[in-house]
Amino acid sequence: MAAFIPFNRPYTTGREFDYIREAIARAHLAGGGEFSHRCQGWLEARVSCAKALLTHSCTGALEMAALLAGIQPGDEVVVPSYTFVSTANAFVLRGGIPVFVDIRPDTLNIDEQAIEAAITSRTRAIAPVHYAGVACEMDEILSIARRHNLLVIEDAAQALGSRYKSAPLGQFGALSAISFHETKNVIAGEGGALLINAPDLAARAEVIRDKGTDRSRFLRGEIDKYTWRDIGSSYAPSELTAAFLWAQMEAAEEIDNRRHEVWQWYHTALETLEQRDCLRRPIVPPHCQHNAHMYYVIVRDPETRARVIAELNQSGINAVFHYVPLHTATAGEKFGRVHGSMCHTEGLSQRLIRLPLWVGMQQSDVMRIADRLAQLLSR
């Protein structure tokens, strides 16, 4: 029987345990130590942001962004419905109202043409999500934000290493959130980062991350004691998490190259099926450089998707669906509202299949998946 191909297999470089032991030897296991500083410096250099702060998750980074944006009860934030729950939940926790708009049919990113009509006098921010590591149309989104004096908060959870017109994603929004969850390219098991591109928000971001205190200034020797200054919570990860993450960051270029190799194997192997109108492959606009975070296909109808996922898994290939649109969820109906047609969100979300993609996959694995897809879609 053929070997099982999991949807994801977390990659380790071999240095993670060495750095964890080093962190233990340094006797500083709480956040804010040497490895946290290394990781934050790496992000600041790679993304060219004013400041990077590690967080315990991308969810935590988004919650910090909502606090920094000053979201108050009744304030609105324009978001795509086709995203992970944290994109909306971060604002709902502050009493905000996510206003769901449709996605583009090509990239599955927020439809920038649908944003402006959704803006009201209560709108405070736009939160674009770079789906599958492919950039949203940031020029238009930033232009809309300037016209209406709105904050842009990038949900770049899937997008570390991706670019829009040669500029790294994560540097466009006043605030941006990154994920290091085990399914991402660079991982820490659980983890994230808040990237701050509006320098006037940097000092408060440190306070919010440190439970509302000015502890970071105290550790830098800038003050002789620290105290409660603002609202906040415990958003920083431990040094053990940062040590693991540093090993991944050191290998980020190798990880990127190997993921792109697997992504391209898929793209080449499935070209014929697309030409036969059996499926649609991902679309990456020429001005976007993606990070090979995900490979998905879109099939003809929901019934085909259900059958193909079931039969792939029966064949030892762990293919999965992705998001249930937030506007159709119980909490989405309760806390948010919809503006405009959601035809692409509703149609494409029911036809999308995510295929296994991880460092260590062999070309033979991809060909086996492609061959099985061809058998199932040719019926």
Report on the structure:
This protein is an alpha/beta fold. It has two domains: 235 residues, Type I PLP-dependent aspartate aminotransferase-like (Major domain) (Aspartate Aminotransferase, domain 2, 3-Layer(aba) Sandwich), CATH 3.40.640.10; 126 residues, Alpha-Beta Complex (Aspartate Aminotransferase, domain 1), CATH 3.90.1150.10. The strands form three sheets. Strands 1-9-8-5-4-2-3-12 form an eight-stranded mixed sheet, with helices on both faces. It has a three-stranded antiparallel sheet with strand order 7-6-10, with no helix packed on it. Strands 11-13 form a two-stranded antiparallel sheet. α6 links the parallel β4 and β5. It is globular and about 70 Å long. The chain starts with 15 loop residues before the first helix and ends with a helix. The mean pLDDT is 97.
Topology (elements, then pairings):
Elements: H1 16-25, H2 34-47, E1 51-55, H3 58-68, E2 76-80, H4 85-92, E3 97-101, H5 112-115, E4 123-126, H6 138-148, E5 151-155, E6 163-164, E7 167-168, E8 175-179, E9 192-196, H7 202-209, H8 215-219, H9 239-250, H10 252-269, H11 271-275, E10 288-289, E11 295-298, H12 302-314, H13 330-335, E12 337-338, H14 343-349, E13 352-355, H15 363-377
Parallel strand pairs: 2-3, 2-4, 3-12, 4-5, 5-8
Antiparallel strand pairs: 1-9, 6-7, 6-10, 8-9, 11-13
Helix pairs in contact: 1-9, 2-9, 3-4, 3-7, 10-15, 12-15
